[in-house]
Amino acid sequence: MNYMRTGIIRLLVAASIALSAFAVVPALTFAAPNCNIKRNLVEADLSRCDLSGSDMTGANLTLANLYAANLRGANLNRAILTVTDMTGANLSGANLSGANLSGANLTDADLSGASLSGAALVGANMSGANMSGANMFHSDLVLADLSYANLTGADLQGANLFRAILFGTDFTRADLTYAVRRPGISRSDMDGATGLDKVKGLLD
Asked: Which of 27, 35, 102, 111 lies in disulfide reach of 49, CB 3.0 to 4.6 Å?
């Protein structure tokens, strides 16, 4: 009899623990960002997470939420960041060489001193972003929105700016040698951009 009672009590305790876990875990999972990067990061919520200096080489962050995240000095070499929300994120000094950021939202993001060489930024929204001193050598910026972005001192040698939005973009001291907007690139091709009197690499 006592054996049966003990068994019933154990079952009730186990059921109670299981129900508690079921009630609590969803709240933790969906109500707050999960900053653990050692998992599937597709559509992950990493908003406001401190990921500074982290190594995410080749990580797939498609459709992830990195709103206001701190990725200062992070290694995102060859990472997939397509249609990722990085609004207001700190990516200063980050390595994004060869990364795919097509369709990403980088509005007001800090990319100062970041390496974006060979990165795909097709259709990315980079309006108001700070890319001063960034290495954007041979980056693909086709259809990207660079309106009011800060590209002072940026290396844009060989970059593809075809049909990119450049209204209010500051190119002071930027290097646009061999950059493409149409065949070659001239001041007339940079309508709305600023700082062109100090730009290197224009044809006129």
From this structure: 35
| Residues 6+ away with beta carbon under 8 Å from 7 | none
Burial of 173 (0-12, 13-18, 19+ CB in 10 A): middle
Which two three-digit tokens encode residue 53?
Answer: 């200096």
Cβ(174)–Cβ(154) below 8 Å: yes
Backbone angles phi, psi at 198, to 5 degrees: -120, 20
| 181 band by pLDDT with thresholds 50, 70 and 90 | confident
- DSSP code string of 42-111: TT-B-TT-B-TT-B-TT-B-TT-B-TT-B-TT-B-TT-B-TT-B-TT-B-TT-B-TT-B-TT-B-TT-B-
Please give the Cα distance from 138 to 164 (Å, whole number): 15
CATH second-level architecture of 34-204? 3 Solenoid (2.160)
pTM, 2 dp: 0.79
Helix/strand/coil for 158: coil
Q: What is the pLDDT of residues 50-73, one digit of tens each?
A: 999 999 999 999 999 999 999 999
Per-residue model confidence as pLDDT tens digits over 152-172? 999 999 999 998 999 899 999
